[in-house]
Amino acid sequence: MALLFRPYPTIGYRIPGTARSIPVTDITRRFTLTSFLQNASVNFDEYYIQDGETPQGVAYDYYGDVTFDWVVLFSNEIQDPYYEWPMSTENFDSYIKQRYGMQYAHQTNHHYEWITQQQQTIIENGIQRILPEKKLVVDYTTYLTLTAPERRAVSIYDHEAQLNDDRKTIYLIDLHYTQIFKDQHPFIFSEGAFVR
Q1: pLDDT tens-digit profile of 3-42?
Q2: Strand, helix or coil for residue 128
Q3: What is the C-alpha separation between 97 and 81, in angstroms, rounded?
Q4: How confident is the model at residue 52 (pLDDT cuts 50, 70, 90)?
Q5: What residue segments make up the domains of the chain, in order of their start?
């Protein structure tokens, strides 16, 4: 994760009670992708993060270069790789135990849903399409008025698991743009520039 902050500028921080200053990363400013890369014509590939996979691992597997971990994060607008990146199964279970207690998380409802449309598979002109489930979050009183197939109580555990699963689908800037990154930001990829 050391490479994450390499694109950030540094500022002088005056140590309180002294006349000495040290350079520190200016976390109030951040690297942004150029307007060229934000253009709608730029290709992004969908990528599904495997259990326990890190930004460095994704960067190595996809770009062949761990120094592209920050590209993986920024192209998905991930500012905090510790809380916005999906947790592994082990870390997720530890998080649930610590925050809620496993039994409480499974037995306590987070919210209630009204399933307005079940997931369906339809065939039109020989083409199979899947219509996704549609649902609304409702209060408990409304939930009680619905029939069993129309309603769902979602536990805290299931809600947190869904949030974590949603983070597993990311988008990566097409491999062909890597040379553009290296040309526009050579200081990030130069030899010996690693932050330790």
Answers
A1: 555 556 677 878 888 888 888 776 665 555 555 555 556 6
A2: strand
A3: 21
A4: very high
A5: 2-86+167-189, 89-165
